[in-house]
């Protein structure tokens, strides 16, 4: 059956004139009363803020209803603790989920402003860095969509990570001033303030009844004040809250000190308190940076637990019922202090016995692990931990005592086993192991892809899994299709609706109906037309930002992710150099034109990653200005990668680079977003690439390179790569060119360390996997040249991605870990949305 033709604008229901009039009146009222402007004086930002506030009013009504219904029903609640929430722009996201995009577009048009112009006025919220934070955002949206009562807890960063500027090819970091114009989405809660304490001493005090308790006398107190942002589920039926904490001093100024003339000293304690929420991931190379990061993590954990316990007591009244009414999910090791803080609150504040408190703690908490890198599992020097959180160290010692007794019982006399599972690492200066703490204090520990969860049992948590064999489970990551298909790619969404029916908007499993059209030439042409329009939009953005003209007809080869050695941007740029050499050698050959597109930030202290960014830009400078290759290869690095930039890149991508060293990527979610938008994946058998291959079919993905066990075996033989370099002329030539300064004539030795690592310190198997990768890329060239076969594979990628919805992931969390009910995925949309 042929697909129906897709009109320029997918047919929408008629817009209710009364509803349209109400929206326009609400926006004008906000413009006058909240912004203080007449329409004739208003800037685009004024219009954006007025429109956002008018929309927020509608959302708040739904929000209050959702809250009341869940509390009246006594429903169990989920509390999601994450140091990152990469929520992106909320305006069009909320409009889309509320079913009001068309209505607001028409209303704003009548008022003389464009919806897309206003969307650009909204900055991306600087609340995250990469996949971890974006996953948290997708999960929050899915929990609202599935009508799970939930609250996300995090920090309201003043500046987030950083704003990335590329200056002469080098990354430079500047504050991301996302709050400079205010944030219309948040509601300040000045009445919701908790005291978070640091330092001091602990003494044992016996009360008149003869009960001995620990009394913590801190030397510093910081106040945590709440800001709430509503998170709207699909169809607007349920709204949850993202509660972020801002730090402040109890007394903003010491007046007596100020009056002595010490004006800076009078506010020094305020600056120390507020530093907690200034930046995400402060540079921890210095002792002060490490202390600030520990203070950050405890600050948000303590405030969040105090808040959720108060909520629980207000609704239930019994602290002993906490695990029955609350599920707390720790997103990575950053909130691991929740184990000790919940124990402290239960024992010291609510006066429970240790065994009862421990049972409640482990039954309430669960932990998501995101890494197999031992160095990424946080540890804290014992002296820093004791100085900052003395009571919590006491609790850790007591947890460890019982834990090690169990280890001795399980493996009598095995000192190595006890040392391996201990909460205190004694090997390289005594350090507290936060991954171990989260594992021991949780009833479920999940990995984020099948391979990752299996490897957890064999690597970082091998011995802990032996001690607690039933705790590790798998929950493969997912993405919200509302953001990454419906909103980011409306052209493809319209085409999907024409083939699968409108039901696909509520039930992504209907995507499988696309398979019937994968070989249909007319449908393929429509699919290519949608992709080409998206590529024109990205080409325009590249021209505006970088001054580089690229051909939308070329193959858009995309690698967008945090810059890290294991993610192997270096392998990609090395292949770029080899391809450049090959084109120069045979300029008249029928080469497939390519545009290599990179984007991502390197941690400010990660010097080698920043050198890789410089290499990418130096290679781009040479390649893009070499007329002899006739524009057959272009290289682009797009600065300041964020959600909004991803929403332009991903729909335009033809090829998705997922090329991490096998066994090192926990899951990935960019791989899912790109495949959902019709890009073919080139990747290793790592993370969720394996499950993507299993779902889309091995013939619709390009797999290369060593598998995880092969990587381990090669490392055991040593890291020198001269054997593979000697056998590979393209690789040897590319390394020589980089080493000789062919791409850095102003500083020929700039990349000497890169060349040395490629030859002698190939820990991430860049050189070892090069030939396999280069061959796979030439296979991509052949598939691209085949035309219809490429398009068919792209359509099948879209058709078979339904399983990677974050709704599926959250439903699995709800059933297996949290024990909370969810709305059924295929529930039809409410009839009331016909009127918007």
TrEMBL record:
This is Alpha-1,4 glucan phosphorylase. Its cofactor is pyridoxal 5'-phosphate. CDD domains: GT35_Glycogen_Phosphorylase (cd04300). It comes from the Bacteria. Gene3D superfamilies: Glycogen Phosphorylase B (3.40.50.2000). GO terms for molecular function: glycogen phosphorylase activity; pyridoxal phosphate binding. It is an enzyme of class 2 (transferase). It is found in: Cytoplasm. Keywords: Allosteric enzyme, Carbohydrate metabolism, Cytoplasm, Glycosyltransferase, Pyridoxal phosphate, Transferase. Phosphorylase is an important allosteric enzyme in carbohydrate metabolism. Enzymes from different sources differ in their regulatory mechanisms and in their natural substrates. However, all known phosphorylases share catalytic and structural properties. Its main location: cytoplasm. It catalyses: [(1->4)-alpha-D-glucosyl](n) + phosphate = [(1->4)-alpha-D-glucosyl](n-1) + alpha-D-glucose 1-phosphate.
């Amino acid at each position: 059956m042929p697909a129906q033709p897709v009109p320029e604008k997918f047919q929408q229901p008629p817009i209710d004139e009364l509803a349209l009039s109400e929206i326009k009146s609400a926006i004008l009222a906000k413009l006058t009363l909240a912004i203080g402007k007449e329409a004739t004086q208003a800037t685009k930002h004024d219009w954006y803020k007025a429109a956002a506030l008018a929309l927020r009013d509608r959302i708040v009504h739904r929000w209050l209803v959702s809250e009341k219904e869940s509390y009246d029903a006594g429903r169990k609640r989920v509390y999601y603790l994450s140091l990152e929430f990469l929520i992106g722009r909320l305006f069009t996201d909320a409009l889309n989920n509320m079913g009001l995009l068309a209505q607001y577009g028409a209303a704003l048009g009548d008022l003389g402003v464009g919806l897309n112009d206003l969307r650009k006025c909204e900055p991306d919220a600087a609340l995250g860095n990469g996949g971890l934070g974006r996953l948290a955002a997708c999960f929050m949206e899915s929990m609202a969509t599935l009508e799970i009562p939930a609250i996300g807890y995090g920090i309201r960063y003043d500046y987030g990570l950083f704003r990335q500027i590329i200056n002469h090819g080098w990354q430079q970091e500047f504050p991301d001033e996302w709050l400079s114009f205010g944030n219309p989405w948040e509601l300040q809660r000045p009445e919701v303030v908790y005291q978070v304490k640091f330092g001091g001493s602990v003494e044992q005090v016996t009360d008149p009844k003869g009960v001995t308790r620990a009394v913590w006398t801190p030397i510093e107190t910081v106040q945590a004040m709440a800001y709430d942002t509503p998170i709207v589920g699909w169809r607007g039926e349920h709204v949850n809250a993202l509660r972020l904490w801002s730090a402040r001093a109890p007394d903003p100024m010491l007046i007596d000190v100020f009056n002595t003339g010490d004006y800076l000293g009078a506010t020094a304690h305020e600056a120390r308190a507020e530093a907690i929420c200034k930046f995400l991931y402060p540079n921890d190379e210095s002792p002060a940076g490490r202390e600030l990061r520990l203070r950050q993590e405890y600050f948000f954990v303590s405030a969040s637990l105090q808040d959720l316990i108060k909520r629980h007591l207000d609704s239930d009244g019994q602290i002993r019922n906490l695990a029955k009414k609350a599920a707390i999910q720790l997103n990575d090791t950053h909130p691991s202090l929740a184990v000790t803080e919940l124990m402290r609150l239960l024992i010291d504040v609510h006066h429970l016995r240790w065994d009862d408190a421990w049972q409640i703690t482990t039954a309430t908490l669960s932990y998501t692990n995101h890494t197999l890198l031992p160095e990424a599992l946080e540890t804290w020097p014992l002296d820093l931990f004791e100085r900052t959180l003395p009571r919590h160290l006491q609790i850790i010692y007591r947890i460890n005592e019982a834990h090690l007794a169990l280890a001795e019982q399980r493996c009598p006399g095995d000192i190595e086993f006890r040392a391996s599972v201990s909460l205190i690492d004694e090997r390289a200066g005594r350090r507290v192991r936060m991954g171990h703490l989260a594992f021991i204090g949780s009833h479920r520990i999940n990995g984020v892809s099948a391979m990752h969860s299996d490897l957890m049992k064999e690597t970082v948590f091998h011995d802990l899994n032996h001690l607690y064999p039933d705790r590790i489970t798998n929950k493969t990551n997912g993405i919200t299709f509302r953001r990454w298909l419906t909103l980011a790619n409306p052209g493809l969404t319209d085409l999907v609706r024409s083939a699968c029916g409108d039901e696909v908007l509520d039930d992504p499993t209907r995507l499988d109906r696309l398979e019937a059209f994968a070989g249909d030439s007319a449908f393929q042409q429509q699919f290519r037309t949608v992709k080409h329009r998206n590529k024109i939009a990205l080409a325009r953005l590249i021209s505006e930002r970088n001054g580089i003209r690229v051909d939308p007809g070329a193959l858009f080869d995309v690698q967008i992710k945090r810059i890290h050695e294991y993610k192997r941007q270096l392998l990609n740029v090395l292949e770029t150099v080899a391809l450049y050499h090959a084109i120069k050698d045979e300029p008249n050959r029928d080469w497939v034109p390519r545009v290599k597109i990179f984007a991502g930030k390197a941690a400010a202290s990660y010097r080698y990653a920043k050198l890789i960014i410089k290499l990418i830009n130096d290679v781009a400078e040479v390649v893009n200005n070499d007329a002899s290759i006739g524009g057959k290869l272009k290289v682009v690095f797009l600065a300041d990668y964020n959600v909004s930039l991803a929403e332009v890149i991903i729909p335009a991508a033809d090829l998705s680079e997922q090329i991490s060293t096998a066994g090192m990527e926990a899951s990935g979610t960019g791989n899912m977003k790109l495949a959902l938008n019709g890009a073919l994946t080139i990747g290793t058998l790592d993370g969720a690439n394996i499950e993507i291959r299993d779902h889309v079919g091995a013939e619709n993905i390009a797999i290369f390179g060593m598998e995880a066990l092969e990587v381990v075996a090669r490392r055991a033989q040593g890291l020198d790569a001269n054997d593979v370099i000697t056998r590979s002329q393209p690789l040897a030539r590319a390394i020589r060119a980089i080493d000789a300064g062919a791409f850095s004539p102003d500083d020929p030795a700039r990349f000497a360390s890169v060349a040395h690592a490629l030859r002698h310190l190939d820990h991430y198997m860049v050189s070892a996997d090069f030939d396999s990768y280069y061959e796979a890329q030439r296979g991509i060239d052949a598939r691209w040249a085949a035309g219809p076969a490429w398009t068919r594979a792209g359509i099948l990628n879209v058709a078979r991605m339904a399983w990677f919805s974050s709704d599926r992931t959250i439903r699995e969390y709800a059933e297996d870990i949290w024990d909370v009910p969810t709305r059924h995925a295929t529930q039809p949309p409410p009839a009331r949305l016909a009127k918007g």
